[in-house]
Design goal:
Layout lengths: L8 H9 L17 E2 L10 H17 L14 H9 L10 E3 L3 H12 L8 E5 L4 H13 L4 H4 E4 L9 H6 L5 E7 L11 H10 L3 E5 L11 H4 L3 E4 L14 E4 L48 H13 L1 H22 L6 E2 L12 E4 L3 H10 L2 E2 L1 E3 L3 E4 L8 H16 L15
Parallel strand pairs: 1-11, 3-4, 3-5, 5-6, 6-7
Antiparallel strand pairs: 2-8, 7-8, 9-10, 10-13, 12-13
């Protein structure tokens, strides 16, 4: 899409006045004078999330063990209730989605379920610029099966270290490939991968396909009825604002719901017989059958509040603002920051990009630290990327304008030179 923007604060305020989602900002906890651009790493706390957490705490406080069954929604089935709330974000059926554990354990669970190597078909196809936890899980699952990751992992290298080329993966779908695991959005560049193209081509070759949605869920609507992947995983603490360490999401295509779980546990048992405590596992015939142990209720409760906001706002409206406000950010960067050596490492076309901008600079690490001191919250990713994510529910166009002005000040006054070229524990 072609966008038309103007320079100046008054234009930013005009865009805010026209913003259909502007009322949601007041439902989040924001610090005065701070510009929070890290919603793609940890979303902010909302009053809605807080209210759900306090409700669940109250239920535990007053009901004790009866909180499992005498609540609405039932805490004993909370994971599937939240799964049903997440399902519209990817256009899946409620029975195909559950809240479970964390992204890495969900990858282990999915690989344990779907990776069935044979002498002729045993390789797992991956890219080389994905977030590392996916590869760690793959290597671990291979070793558990007595296989060598050096032999069984087939890596398709990025041509430029920023993006992946879908055609390269189609070419790599040889007869020895059993499974593919790829990110929907690249965590550094923000590239949105053509999931349907890769999934369709893989299925023509009888290859299982899984997607890591960590950097797209809540920012990009997905249509899993059209894409038709075999499984998907995602975290909920980024754009979904579920809170630090909130439970992750797991999607199992309904055509696979009869498969045995690769990492079974008692909480995945058929519910009306779970407390018979039989040693023979009877897996529930929906995504909840992939549950392992009892999940953390207090790490799910804030997510309920946030998902209610998503249902109220509408995923298409969120995506529309995300595309527009990131395009506005790109416009200001190109107008104001190129003279200071900044470039943008994200795709330009709407259908190719997720919800954040990769701002690149040779001195990105020190500039990132100077931004924090200037009360802008970004994050840094090696080797030279400052990620900026204007989360649509709580970031204004005025925030984007002011952030760019603070970067100009940092560069003009060379304030970044006062910081070490050293990354901290959490970048």
């Amino acid at each position: 899409m072609t966008y038309s923007f103007e320079k100046g604060l008054s234009f930013a305020k005009q865009l805010d006045d026209q913003d259909a989602l502007k009322s949601f900002r007041d439902r989040f906890y924001l610090n005065d004078g701070e510009i929070y651009m890290d919603g793609n790493s940890l979303g902010l706390c909302s009053k809605d999330a807080e209210a759900c957490l306090m409700r669940v705490l109250g239920e535990w406080k007053t009901l004790g063990i009866n909180c499992w069954t005498q609540t609405q929604p039932s805490l004993f089935l909370y994971h599937d209730h939240l799964g049903a709330m997440m399902a519209p974000l990817i256009n899946a059926d409620p029975e195909e989605v559950t809240a479970h554990a964390n992204t890495t354990l969900n990858i282990h669970t999915a690989l344990g379920t779907f990776y069935e190597p044979t002498d002729k078909r045993y390789k797992i196809l991956v890219d080389d610029i994905n977030f590392p936890t996916d590869r760690h899980a793959i290597d671990g699952q291979l070793r558990l099966k007595g296989l060598d990751p050096e032999v069984c992992v087939k890596v398709v290298k990025s041509r430029d270290g920023k993006m992946i080329c879908e055609a390269d993966f189609i070419e790599a779908m040889t007869e020895d490939v059993a499974l593919i695991l790829l990110p929907s959005v690249l965590y550094r560049s923000g590239q949105l991968v053509d999931m349907k193209y890769i999934t369709d081509e893989a299925h023509k070759r009888d290859i299982i396909v899984g997607w890591d949605l960590c950097h797209s869920i809540g920012a990009v609507p997905h249509d899993f009825k059209a894409i038709n992947p075999d499984f998907a995983v995602w975290c909920t603490y980024k754009y979904l604002n579920g809170g630090p360490g909130s439970l992750a999401g797991l999607y199992i295509n309904k055509k696979h719901l009869s498969k045995p779980s690769g990492l079974p546990g008692w909480h995945g048992n058929v519910k009306d017989r779970q407390f018979e405590l039989n040693h023979k596992f009877e897996k529930a015939a929906h995504a909840g059958g992939w549950q392992s142990g009892t999940q953390s209720i207090l790490s799910m409760a804030p997510l309920e509040g946030s998902l209610k906001m998503y249902a109220e706002a509408g995923m298409e409206n969120i995506r529309s603002k995300s595309l527009h406000i990131t395009a506005y950010m790109r416009f200001l960067i190109e107008e104001r920051l190129t003279e200071y050596g900044f470039t943008i490492g994200s795709p330009t076309e709407d259908h190719l990009r997720g919800g954040h901008i990769a701002l690149e600079h040779d001195d990105a690490l020190r500039i990132n630290e100077a931004l924090k001191a200037a009360r802008v919250v970004p994050d840094f990713r090696f080797p030279n990327v400052i990620r900026l994510a204007p989360a649509p529910l709580y970031i204004r166009y005025e925030d984007v304008y002011e952030m760019v002005e603070r970067i100009v000040d940092i560069m003009k006054e060379r304030k970044y030179e006062g910081y070490e070229n050293k990354v901290h524990t959490v970048a």
